[in-house]
């Protein structure tokens, strides 16, 4: 586990600390700060006097203006990520993600169990990634920190949707399946743009997934995936100062030439021409 010095990243409106170091001030409680708590050992947490018993490998999502108290006396392994709406909100999809049941449900907090709760996976996907980005400068660090939060939120949404799919898939609402497909694409597009990749995760055939996608979006599954990749790429081109090669890497391309060809194919313009439009 990283120590407090390793976790000092110097970003405004985003922070990460160990559970043992977590302190919440009255000004924190009054602010629009969101919390994601990752547990390595069993613990009881009170959120506005509502008690949550968490086991190792679980995540707890807590929205703004909630008082958090760890009931265990001894320091417990795990992390607390905190961030504000000002840090996270950068697109319309971010608004939907943040203003969701993860933070604004009937309960004061939401418990999720998934791969992000695995200690080794979390350390690699979140902690080590942030640590490596820190040496590349504040702009890269800001982007990576945002991606890390996004990954955890997508995991949370996916797990909540999956619970609904498992109980309703046979009878069911195609919209639920399509919504889960949408969430999965945003979560994994850097890893894969293959229709079969997402079909396997949803326990569908590629053909069935394409039929559902066409019925709900008017696009094939492949076109839908490509559309999300294009939108995210254009967003970075227009709203960041990252180089085209850096953006191609962040989007999931190993070759910048392939990235340029992809953007030209889907938009009719080379990437740098989209950058010229950001001030227009």
From TrEMBL:
<keyword id="KW-0805">Transcription regulation</keyword>
<dbReference type="GO" id="GO:0043565">
    <property type="term" value="F:sequence-specific DNA binding"/>
</dbReference>
<dbReference type="InterPro" id="IPR018060">
    <property type="entry name" value="HTH_AraC"/>
</dbReference>
<dbReference type="Pfam" id="PF12833">
    <property type="entry name" value="HTH_18"/>
</dbReference>
<dbReference type="GO" id="GO:0003700">
    <property type="term" value="F:DNA-binding transcription factor activity"/>
</dbReference>
<protein>
    <submittedName>
        <fullName>Helix-turn-helix protein</fullName>
    </submittedName>
</protein>
<keyword id="KW-0238">DNA-binding</keyword>
<feature type="domain" description="HTH araC/xylS-type">
    <location>
        <begin position="179"/>
        <end position="277"/>
    </location>
</feature>
<dbReference type="InterPro" id="IPR009057">
    <property type="entry name" value="Homeodomain-like_sf"/>
</dbReference>
<keyword id="KW-0804">Transcription</keyword>
